[in-house]
Amino acid sequence: MSQPVPSAPVGLRDVLVGVAVENEGGTASSAVGYGLTLAKAAGAHLTLQSASWRLAGDDRWISRFDDGSVAEIDRRLDALARAVAERAAVDARLAGVVCTTETPSLPYPAVIRRLAQQARLHDLTVLDAEIWTCDLDREAIESTLFESGRPVIAVPPGQAAFAGRRIIVAWDGSAQAARAANDALPFLRAAEAVEIVSVGDAAEIRDAVPGAEFAPHLARHGVNVVVNDLPVSGSVGDTLRSQTGLFRADMVVMGAYRHSRARQFFFGGVTRSLLRSCPVPLFLSR
């Protein structure tokens, strides 16, 4: 196995990538390429779970009307999932990355449950985040965060290669934000520049634990950090997206789902806003 390159995240030993094949016309996964290049940079073991969402036996109403076509769809989806795993294994071998693959064919709930169980056994999990997050993608991200106790990197389309030179830490003073920054320390130490960004009016920033008080903690860990307090422009999500471009960030680190998933579903929230549309990968912890 190759040694980690300078400025690579040090301390990562294993990375899990999860993809799920739901239909035959799905878009290519960015998470696979991102996870592979991250594992290569860190000198980490790569595990790929390429699952197919099995329809047969998933719902009684489906089996009641199945004339054999559902089983045929399942076979084709399973073949696609196996093809994804085989390509990733070849790419990993060519890149000098030790890679393990598994290709479970499972009903919808079991796909998500298996992913969360696997995530507990790895330092972090890399998943796709579509621009308009579909149910399976969103459920995979949420369940992995809530049930694994491990961080997740959600990768938007078109971000199939790891980069981590410039990183934004979204800071609101919460326990989730502190957890995310601590989990992301391997990336923050390796980055050339890190910006702690707090979004809100002066009173909101003052009433929370200020980013300026958190910055010395990161600096003691060898992080090259600055602090930037920003007023809300449109929404918190809009402001963070704009600052990501201005800072030329490669990654945003943030605490996920400060409020419950039910509240986020009905009223929206920063996490879901950024998952729906973020120009760079999101490092999420809860």
TrEMBL record:
Q: Which CDD domains match?
A: USP-like (cd00293)
Q: Which Pfam families does the record associate with it?
A: Usp
Protein origin, superkingdom? Bacteria
Q: Which residues form the UspA domain?
A: 165-284
Q: What family does the database annotate?
A: Belongs to the universal stress protein A family.
Query: What is the protein name stated in its UniProt record?
Result: Universal stress protein
From which source organism is this entry?
A: Methylorubrum podarium
